[in-house]
Amino acid sequence: MKIILLLSGGLDSTTLLYEMHRKHQVIGSLSFDYGAKHNHKELPMASWHSKKLGVSHTVIPMAFMNDFFKSDLLKSGGSIPEGHYEAANMKQTVVPARNAIMLSIAAGFAESQGAEAVAYGAHTGDHTIYRDCREEFLKPMAEALREGTDGAIELLRPFITMNKAAIVKYGAALGVDYEHTWSCYKGENLHCGSCGTCVERHEAFLLAGVPDPTVYQVHHYE
Amino acid sequence: MKIILLLSGGLDSTTLLYEMHRKHQVIGSLSFDYGAKHNHKELPMASWHSKKLGVSHTVIPMAFMNDFFKSDLLKSGGSIPEGHYEAANMKQTVVPARNAIMLSIAAGFAESQGAEAVAYGAHTGDHTIYRDCREEFLKPMAEALREGTDGAIELLRPFITMNKAAIVKYGAALGVDYEHTWSCYKGENLHCGSCGTCVERHEAFLLAGVPDPTVYQVHHYE
Q1: What are phi and psi of A185, to 5 degrees?
Q2: Enclosing H/E stretch for A148
Q3: CB contact B99 to A (< 8 Å)
Q4: Closest partner residue to B137 among A63, A95, A147, by Cβ?
Q5: What is the rounded distance in angstroms from the CA atom of residue A27 to the CA atom of residue A21?
Q6: Closest chain A residue to B129, measured at CA
Q7: Domains and CATH numbers, chain B
Q8: Shortest Cα distance from B61 to chain A (angstroms)?
Q9: Please, what is the end-to-end C-alpha distance for chain B in angstroms?
Q10: Which helix (H) or strand (E) holds B33?
Q11: What residue of A is the nearest CA neighbor of B136?
Q12: How many other CB atoms are found less than 10 A from the CB of residue B152?
């Protein structure tokens, strides 16, 4: 099956890249430069793994999201909150309709390239605050994209029943080099270790029993 | 209800602007500069009507669609075919997943602006070749956007049971100035009169019994 893969450069989508590359023909990986504070840190990671596997990597510039959308994840927004990923204050990092936008663009890009499916790394650990990572959203979205492309494009979400720790365990067995992935929403030189995504990242390695190769600024949560 | 309205500057969305302005609080109109051959002709029309009604008009730049998507509607594509709008050769003017992309961006923009709904002028005359104008697509899309925004954004499509002639008749009664609208896909100085959208435009005026104010290059189809 010919696949276009959404690749952020984080743990989940990077693992998905290797999994899809094993099972299908990944004709391209797709990233988005949408004004997130950490885009300049995660995009080179997406590029690194794509190059390693010989997969063509495209970055879609979407400056309008930073200009017109309200979210603390964006450069135009406030500070990234610290604490656990599930905490209510992480809600201010939601970018309205972000994944619907990314999946729609991926579907149009995929159809234009002659692909048959878009693959997306959503998983069970994508929490209630991130509504557009959940199956309640993804099921009608998949149907809309299928209908809207006259059946040309399917939306694959093979990790939807796995949690982040299971994904890391699976990826480690596949030999994924997680040193070249980025999670931290702050986008500073090193992973901060304090924001929700850093906490969740380190927890996933701990639960998976896989050594965490990440250098964090602080480790106060252990 | 606070509304963000998708406004192309064509007959349908312009009529919808006046209809929504009458019934709701239109807090913004949204257009997309996506590399279509006729964007430079239709966007000023969208701006003209927004200004007339005192509605804030935003144009989202989406050059990436022209760069990466395959369609003869785009500057990067081939010539616009002539003939009837329903003819098979018009299929090459479909831009893959275009409306899913526009609706998703509108939903995120709307949530960011504190709106409660996105209004979209799809109608029964949006033919089988344009799959992403039809209710089979719009119903799951509406559900995906509702779920993805945690119930914040509804997708309104009040013209979905009307045809283009009925819309023009309705708009004429509302006093919409159709001279300031643009349909032609070719995007030349005047409406060509020969492409599918020009044929459909003129037919709508004829069937509605409303004088067509458009100056066409040719009128060979009458």
Answers
A1: -70, -20
A2: helix A135-148
A3: yes
A4: A147
A5: 9
A6: A150
A7: 2-208 (3.40.50.620)
A8: 7
A9: 43
A10: strand B25-33
A11: A147
A12: 18
The residue of chain A with its CA nearest to that of B70 is: A112
- Rounded distance, CA B82 to CA A73, Å? 46
Say how many residues make up chain A. Answer: 222
Cα dihedral sign, A51-A53-A54-A57: negative
CA B80/CA A50 separation, integer angstroms: 36
Length of chain B, please? Answer: 222
Closest to A10 measured CA to CA, from A150, A110, A159: A159
Residue A178 has φ and ψ, to the nearest 5°, of: -75, -10
Answer whether A42's CB lies under 8 Å from A50's CB: no
A118 touches chain B (CB under 8 A): no
Reported ipTM: 0.94
In this structure, how many other beta carbons lie within 10 angstroms of the beta carbon of residue A174? 11
Distant-in-sequence, close-in-space partners of B84: CB < 8 Å, separation ≥ 6: B90, B196, B199, B200
pLDDT by position in tens, chain B (length 222): 999 999 999 999 999 999 999 999 999 999 999 999 999 999 999 999 999 999 999 999 999 999 999 999 999 999 988 877 667 778 888 899 999 999 999 999 999 999 999 999 999 876 667 788 889 999 999 999 999 999 999 999 999 999 999 999 999 999 999 999 999 999 999 999 999 899 999 999 999 999 999 999 986 544
